[in-house]
Design a protein that fits this description.
By secondary structure, the protein is of the alpha/beta class. The chain has a single domain, classed as Alpha-Beta Complex (Spore Coat Polysaccharide Biosynthesis Protein SpsA, Chain A).
C-alpha cells in the first residue's frame, strides 16, 4: 500500500523557515519533518511514498535525488572522478515526487496523483505533523467499518485557560487550565482512503477538508479513528522548537 503525503503548501504561518525552504523540509533534530513522518510509516512496513509537491517542490526532489550520497560513506578517486559508495543505512524506500501545482488546493493535489495509486486503497497524511498513531490499527479500523475514508482524530493538548466571567462587573469567577479531555476532536491527518474517494473530489477546486469531507460525512462514508496518543502539527516556530526539544531530549514519541 502506498503512502500519499501532501507536501505542497506554502507554510505561511512558519514563514521564518518556509521563506527559505518548503515546510516539509524544515528540520527537527537535523532531519526534515518529512523524513520523520516517512520513518514512522516505514516502521509499519510501508516503504512506498507518493509526495504531492508544490511550493519549492524542486527542493524536495533534490533532497531525494541526493539522498543516497548524502547519507552514505563515499570514496572518491579525484584523478578519474569515480565514486565508490561504502556502508550506509539507507531506508528501503521508493519515493515518487509529483508536481501538483503551486496554488492547487488539497483535493486537487490528491486528484493529480490518481494514476500513481491506481485502483487501490492508500494511506495519506500531511507533510507537517508527527504522531505515534498505530498505522496497523488504523488500517484494521478502516477495513472493519468498510467506508470510503477513515481519518485519525485526536484531542490536542489544551493551550489556553478557560475563564468564566461575571458579565455584570467583569470579575473572574473561575479559571481552569483546559485539559486535553476538554478539547474538541480534530483531524490529525494519518488517514486511509478507498479508491472511491476520487468520486468525491469534484474538479479539485476545494480543500479536501471542505466539501469532499462534508459529502463523505453526509453519505455516512467517513470513519473516525480515535487516537489518544501523541500528535503535534508544526504550524509555527514555537511548534518547531517544541518538537526539537522532544527529539534532542530523546523523548520524541514518534521516533521510529
Amino acid at each position: 500500500m502506498k503512502v500519499v503525503i501532501l507536501a505542497g503548501g506554502k507554510g505561511t504561518r512558519i514563514g521564518e523557515e518556509s521563506q527559505f525552504r518548503p515546510k516539509p523540509l524544515v528540520e527537527i533534530g537535523g532531519r526534515p519533518i518529512l523524513w520523520h513522518i516517512m520513518k514512522w510509516y516505514s516502521r509499519f512496513g510501508f516503504h512506498e511514498f507518493v509526495l504531492c509537491c508544490g511550493y519549492k517542490g524542486h527542493m524536495i526532489k533534490q533532497y531525494f535525488v541526493d539522498y543516497y550520497s548524502r547519507y552514505s560513506d563515499v570514496s572518491i578517486n579525484l584523478q578519474n572522478g569515480r565514486k565508490e559508495f561504502l556502508k550506509n543505512k539507507i531506508e528501503p524506500w521508493k519515493v515518487t515526487l509529483i508536481n501538483t501545482g503551486l496554488n492547487t488546493l488539497t483535493a486537487g493535489r490528491i486528484l493529480k496523483i490518481r494514476e500513481y495509486v491506481k485502483d487501490e486503497e492508500f494511506l495519506f497524511t500531511y507533510g507537517d505533523g508527527v504522531s505515534n498513531v498505530d498505522i496497523q490499527e488504523l488500517i484494521e479500523c478502516h477495513r472493519r467499518h468498510g467506508r470510503i475514508a477513515t481519518i485519525t482524530v485526536t484531542k490536542p493538548d489544551g493551550r489556553f485557560g478557560a475563564v468564566k466571567i461575571n458579565e455584570a462587573d467583569g470579575c473572574v469567577e473561575n479559571f481552569k487550565e483546559k485539559a486535553r479531555s476538554d478539547q474538541s476532536w480534530v483531524n490529525a491527518g494519518y488517514g486511509i482512503f478507498s479508491p472511491q474517494i476520487f468520486d468525491y473530489l469534484g474538479d479539485g477546486s476545494d480543500m479536501l477538508e471542505g466539501r469532499p469531507f462534508e459529502l463523505l460525512a453526509e453519505k455516512n462514508e467517513m470513519t473516525a479513528y480515535c487516537h489518544s496518543g501523541f500528535w503535534s502539527p508544526m504550524d509555527t516556530l514555537k511548534d518547531k522548537e517544541y518538537l526539537e526539544e522532544l527529539w534532542l531530549s530523546g523523548q520524541a514519541p514518534w521516533k521510529a
